[in-house]
Amino acid sequence: MSAQLAPRPARQAKPKPNLRALEAPKQRAATMPFVFVMAAILAIGMVGMVVLATALQDQAFAVQAKQHEANALANRVSQLESQVADARSIKNLAIAAQGLGMRPNPYAVPMRLSDGKVFGTPRPVLGNEVPETRYLSDAEAAAQIAAYNQTEADRIARLKAAAAAKKAAEAAKKAEAATNQTGTDQ
User: Fold this and answer.
1) pLDDT tens, 86-140?
2) Distances in Å between the alpha carbon of 19 and those of 14, 15, 16, 25, 54?
3) Under a CB-based contact definition with an 8 Å cutoff, are residues 93 and 135 in contact?
4) Element (H, E) at 23
5) DSSP label at residue 104
6) Are 135 and 98 in contact (CB under 8 A)?
7) Tell me: the pLDDT tens digits for 35-77?
8) By C-alpha distance, which of 106, 152, 154 is closest to 133?
9) CA 103 to CA 124: how far, in whole Å?
10) Cβ neighbourhood burial of 125 (10 Å; 0-12, 13-18, 19+)
């Protein structure tokens, strides 16, 4: 085979576009109204953002106040639950029983609740079977604390009075020594 060049296709001339000059516009667009419109849109947007931020901040403060209120109420509920649990405690039951004249019984016997049958021989309680057990009501405890505080205040007052008397005696000794010394100097 022989290498022959392929014929080139003939170039076709592209049609030239019909270009023509445009007439100058007779009226030019005004720039001042455009600037005013854009400034108004920008100002409205800024005011809207400030109003929105203020509203969100007010809502955040309201939520924070409600959260503080909820925390305070939760603390109050916790305190009340603690008081109820304390009122239901064995200690308070024992204090109430002691107030009614009841005493702990170390010789308890079992009893069937359905028919009231007692298994064993019940023994009466005299009150001295468990001598170390003594329950104080809140009023009794407060009275004991007040008596202790009064005794302590009396003791401190006596100590202060003794210290003042001692200082007075020392001052009298110094005054006597000073008068004796001035009497011997003359």
Assistant:
1) 888 888 887 788 778 777 778 888 888 899 898 888 888 776 777 666 666 678 8
2) 15, 12, 9, 18, 59
3) no
4) none
5) -
6) yes
7) 999 999 999 999 999 999 999 999 999 999 999 999 999 999 9
8) 106
9) 10
10) middle
